[in-house]
Amino acid sequence: MSLWMILPISLPVLTIAGIWVVLYNESCEEPLPLQRGAVLCCTPDNIPLISKCGTLPPESCFFSLICSTGSFMVMLIGLLRYAHVIERHQNCMLNTAGLSAAWICAAGLIMVGNFQVDIAKVLHYVGAGVAFPSSMLFVCLQSTLTYKLAKTQEEYRVGHLRGGMALLALVALVLSGVFFCQESFALQHAAAIFEWTYCMLIMLFYGTFAFEFGSMSGDTLTVLSRGGGGAGGPSFPTSSGHKMEAEGRGSNHHQSDSLSML
């Protein structure tokens, strides 16, 4: 069991806990008719979307920290998953596309976290427009890749789990986008609910990589140090492969010596 499995588990644990803390601090402490002040919560202008909950300090600082840390972890998990596929199987277009989608999602997540919607709306929405579709693309690619590489019954179960989560995430993303464009106060709240649901599903999806990362070894990092492999190209030999190859050469050498003596 490799300690690398802690990485994909820690991403949903820290991120989900963090954004719920942000929501709790920003949540309404009293009903809307009793609220006083310039800014009222749970109004058409302040729907509890994830971005809105992280607009004002100190929640905005915590929100930026969560997004920046999560972005780094997404990049790292995507890179290690890419190397693990090459090590265990071989590189392919799906694997390369999955890495690209993860890194694009990380770039969008940094923009979302560091440009609050009420301060830099255009940049924030550009980041959201990058992060949401690319994260959806990532889970779809990884679900397909899991099925493609599955050989055991347990690997197929992981594929079923990821496929189901990807389908639910797609439904949540579509409904969130549709309801977000409506003027209705109730539908705007429904959009917020589906947005939160989508983000929870994506984070939990990353947590499922603990299944593969549990068998990760130093050979995975060796693949990265050698620059990976071309799409569809052969995988790099691991240390065990080098050992078997060396033993094979030694055996052939002894056989040739025996024949020469005869």
TrEMBL record:
Keyword entries, A-Z: Membrane, Transmembrane, Transmembrane helix
Annotated InterPro entries: CWH43_N, DRAM/TMEM150_Autophagy_Mod
Main location: membrane
Domain of life: Eukaryota
Keyword Transmembrane: yes
All copies of domain CWH43-like N-terminal, residue ranges: 4-215
Ranges of compositional bias, category Basic and acidic residues: 242-256
Subcellular location(s) per record: Endomembrane system
Transmembrane segments: 5-24, 62-80, 92-116, 122-141, 161-180, 186-206
Disordered: annotated span: 232-262
GO cellular-component term (any): endomembrane system
Topology with respect to the bilayer: Multi-pass membrane protein
Stated family: Belongs to the DRAM/TMEM150 family.
The protein's name: CWH43-like N-terminal domain-containing protein
Organism the protein comes from: Gasterosteus aculeatus aculeatus (three-spined stickleback)
Upper lineage: Eukaryota, Metazoa, Chordata, Craniata, Vertebrata
